[in-house]
Amino acid sequence: MDWVERVTAVRRWTRGQERAPHKPLLLLYALGHFQRHGDAPIVFSAAEQHLAHLLREFGPPRPTSPGYPFHHLASDGLWEVRTADGGPSPGSGVGALRSTGASGHLTDDLVQALRRDPRLLPQLGRAILDANFEPSLHDDLCAEAGLDLEAAAGAAVRRRSREFRQRVMVAYEYRCAFCGYDGWLDGTAVGLDAAHVQWWAFDGPDDVGNGLCLCALHHKLFDKGVLGMTPGWEITVSVHYIGRGATSRGQVIDLAGRTASRPQSAFPSVDDQHIIWHAREVFRSPARAA
């Protein structure tokens, strides 16, 4: 049985290219729980706030309920839910899950596979992350889910296409499109990333028309939805971002309304459809006034 294929093929609610990482987030949480507590069940009422936090931090900028993945993941054959008296899942309503003492756990066959092969857990974790989230978020996701992918040998590490990175860097002349940072050390650019605008996991192509050269700070904030941009290349800053110090204001808040730098004329600008996808699926609207 190919468990990697099964965890990356979980059925998700879909509409166009909208993100719905509810089940993958619960799977990451469940793997972290297994790593720490074995096959002890996850009681919904005890995990509800943590799951809601994961959905809020790493899901799309739309309200959602932790009851949705807790109930519906069972349809993929990886997860089981039982009430305190041994009955089936009462549904996805948080009230019913709480009142019935519902708990969930990974299926017995998956648990046995994880015990037989210590390398399987980090392989599954990496596969879920790669299929659903940008690499800049992986470390934070693992920390929030309590998942240590380095604890077992043989964990696969995903790496960006070197050609994509190189082409994006040249297109933007090794300068952050948002702030102009262009640091080098011994002939090598440092602190600069090639960022996908529309995430690779959601059909974002590996080409310059979907790439931005961003410094490490602004790349992280772009993938978290703090920063965004409009089809007119105006930088947007979420009203939900709070930065009281001079550094936060100068490096983040004051970007609102500025125009991002475009690539050299020999390279295509980011396609509007990718910018619109990011604004809808990642950016934490509304935007601050310039």
TrEMBL record:
Record-annotated ScoMcrA-like DNA sulfur-binding domain positions: 3-148
Record keywords, A-Z: Endonuclease, Hydrolase, Nuclease
Ranges for domain HNH nuclease: 176-227
Pfam families attached to this UniProt entry: DNA-SBD_ScoMcrA (PF26340), HNH_2 (PF13391)
Keyword Nuclease: yes
One annotated GO molecular function: endonuclease activity
The protein's name in its UniProt record: Restriction endonuclease
